[in-house]
Structure formats: C-alpha cells, structure tokens
Write a structure and sequence with these properties.
Length: 346
C-alpha cells in the first residue's frame, strides 16, 4: 500500500484536471481497500475513491482528505461466469472476454475507466449496458462495517444510475461478477442503429464477435472516445451530459418548442421519452469544437467537453454551464451532468 501526501490528482483523471489530495493511498488488494476505508471513516476523514478517473471532475482546490486509488487486479473466468477486481482496466477486460469467445459486453469496448466503476454508473453504450450481465457486486458496506454481496436486482440499475450512485457514501466496490454468453463466436443481438448501419445488417441480428468489438472501437475512436495521450479530444470525461428523459408533459412542451423540426425520440418506459443530448447541444448552437479558451467541445463529438492542455476545472465548468444554459433557453430541457463532481457543482 503506497501512501503519498499533497499528491497531484490531475494525472489520475482522463480530464487531467483537479488539484492535489492531502493524502493519496494506492491499494492493490481488497484488504488494503477495506483497511483504508475503515481508517478514514473512524477518523471522520473525507474519503474519495478513484478507479480509472474517467468519470470525475475534481475542483482546482483538490481534495482535503484521503483519496483511495483502487489498483487491484484480477480476471477470473469460470465457463461463462466472469469475476473482475474493481481495479481491472475495463477496456482490457472487455477485449479479453472477446478473445475467449464470450458475448455480453462486447459493445462496451474502449470505454475508459475501471471495472469497479461500471456498476456505479450502470455503464452503457451502443445499445448495451452492464446491468444486463452483472449478477453480483461485492462491496464494502460503510454502514454495516462489513463486506457484502449484492445481487444485480439489489443494485437498482436504471439509465446511467444505480444504488451506488444514489448513495455514494455507502458502498465501495471490490469485485464485479458477470454472466456472459457463449454464442459460438457470435455477438449479442445488435440494438444500436449506428452499429447495425456500419456493419450493413438489420437491427437485432448478430455478427462475428470480434467484428462487433472492433467496429465499436473504431466508432468510439472516431468520436474521440478512446484514450489517446496525443489527442486532446480524448482529454475528457466522455459524454458530459446524459440523454434527457422527459415526462409526457415535458415532452409535449419540448415538441411545442420544436415546431416543424423533428428531434430524436426513444421510448423510455412509464410514458417517458428519451431524447439526444448531443442533438440538443448541436441545435442550440454549440457545434463541434465550440469554445475559444483552454476548454472546448471536442472537435469530434459535441457531448465531450475537453481540456485542450492548459485548462482548469473552472474553465471546463464555465463551458458546461454555457452549454447547459443555452440548451435550456433554446428547448426548455435541463441537461444533467454525467461525471461525478468533487468539490464543485454546475
């Protein structure tokens, strides 16, 4: 277990933003994680848990407490059952499951971050989300002071949400278990229109597993969503805003604002409709590359807010507020940030 003081946090995030931690602990075993959490809680010390740092916006003042960096490793496969340590690099783990000929998370290729973060955000992309395959999450419960195992149903998954995100002070994820599918080298049925179109197949068809993985990886890279230290379009937290889910009343008001214009719309259950945050941003006047300062929209994707190399967190937040307020003024729809805010707020 490595302990550092006044340690920079920016290098631990994909945005490369944020001030220092008063104390940074890097844990490489579950026991070290639990020991660090218990010690911080017993001392009444603020605690921030970091995995891959891909979904964090940390304030310029840093974090006045203990930052726990989870660096555990573990990839265990038993038939179609997969267990990942929380610190496993997610993109690498997905690639390994494809190497093993197992479907279930192949459309989540190239997503930065660690395995332990996937149930927190119910990570999803291209028509697939981890809620579909997670069977159990092993976590340390900071209220019960013990390690617990939560079933997939216990996790209360919904769109980019879970019980872990709803109550972030309660659990620290240690391990995540998945049930994958051996489909004879074929992918899961394709649900996302862009993927089907790129592959030249109809929706709900399956294709070669490796082809599906590599196609998604190429699509993500084309949008600046695969990490590349030399490409500032990837110095981001991925999609900064979630796709809005509107009630029937909200959707009717939105349609009234649109007039003759047609916006993307998808059923979201319970009479609600999901629309596209990227479409809203673009049609509110914020195109790719918008911004003249050190933080701009990605030149490849309007949903990514990027650090062009010399930005501060406040620069990024100023841009986020400009986009959020502009969309609200144009369409009456409130965009909600997807990354976790630490010491700051929109």
């Amino acid at each position: 277990m490595l302990v550092e003081h006044d340690a920079p946090l920016a290098p631990l995030t994909t945005l490369r933003l944020g001030g220092p931690a008063r104390r940074l602990v890097t844990a490489t075993t579950d026991e070290e994680i639990v020991e660090t959490v218990r010690a911080a809680d017993a001392a009444g010390e603020p605690l921030l848990v970091i995995g891959g740092g891909s979904n964090l916006v940390i304030g310029d003042a840093g974090f006045d407490g203990t930052v726990l960096r989870i660096a555990t490793r573990g990839f265990a496969l038993d038939g179609t059952l997969l267990e990942l340590a929380a610190g496993e690099v997610w993109a690498d783990a997905v690639a390994r499951t494809v190497d093993e000929g197992l479907a279930g998370i192949e459309f989540l290729a190239g997503i930065p971050g660690s395995a332990g973060a996937t149930p927190v955000q119910n990570v999803g992309a291209y028509g697939q989300e981890v809620a579909e395959t997670i069977t159990e999450v092993v976590a340390y419960d900071r209220v019960r002071y013990e390690t617990v195992t939560l079933t997939g149903a216990d996790c209360a998954f919904s769109y980019r949400h879970s019980r872990f995100k709803a109550d972030p002070e309660r659990h620290v994820v240690l391990r995540v278990r998945f049930r994958l599918t051996d489909a004879g080298g074929q992918s899961s049925p394709i649900k996302y229109a862009e993927v089907a179109r790129t592959l030249g197949v109809e929706a709900n068809r399956s294709v070669d597993l490796r082809t599906a993985h590599d196609t998604v990886l190429k699509l993500r890279a084309g949008k600046g969503m695969v990490l590349d230290p030399e490409d500032h379009d990837t110095w981001s937290a991925g999609s900064f805003f979630t796709n809005p889910i509107l009630t029937d009343t909200q959707y009717r008001a939105f349609q009234d604002r649109l007039g003759e214009v047609t916006a993307p719309a998808f059923p979201a259950g319970d009479g609600r409709t999901k629309t596209s945050a990227a479409w809203l941003i673009d049609h509110a006047g914020f195109g790719k590359g918008h911004g003249s300062g050190p933080a701009t929209l990605s030149t490849k994707h309007t949903l990514a807010l990027t650090n062009r190399g010399a930005a501060t967190t406040e620069d990024l937040l100023a841009l986020a507020r400009e986009v959020r307020d502009g969309v609200r003024a144009a369409f009456g729809v409130e965009l909600v940030n997807e990354p976790v805010m630490v010491g700051v707020a929109l």
